[in-house]
Amino acid sequence: MIGYRVTEDELQNQIMPMMHECYRLGIIDHDTIASLVRFCLQFWMGHFRMKKQQFDMAQEDIEEEKKRLAKIVAEKEAWQKWDNSTPRVIEKTTKELEQMGKEFDREFSAPSNNSNQSPNHNQSQSSRKNPLEPHD
After folding, report:
1. Structural domain includes residue 68
2. Contact 2/38 with Cβ under 8 angstroms?
3. Each residue of 70-89: pLDDT tens digit?
4. Number of folded domains that form the chain
5. I need a surface site. Which of 23, 74, 81, 131 has the fewest CB within 10 A?
6. CA 134 to centroid of chain Cα atoms
């Protein structure tokens, strides 16, 4: 009986009343009851300590994770504030305008270069019409 694990409910509602009844009837002595009660209390206190330690460790992990997430949120908010600040918006807009200007220049300079190159290109093709013919 000493090595047998019981639930708290079984101890309170079944075993203890039965043991007290057996003691009252003189079937078991007081030392047996004391030993069982001591064992059950030690078992449940050990069980409680183990669960409490697991809970405390989990709580510590949760608190560390909360702190880590709070740092991430604060960092993100600070970055968003900086990114949306007036100097940053002006800087981003200036870069976008410069990029648009470069693209605009490329678009309008490309056709003029093609029109200048097309006559030369045609001349060089006419001079190389047949590679097998002898050149002057």
Report:
1. no
2. no
3. 999 999 888 887 777 777 77
4. 1
5. 131
6. 75
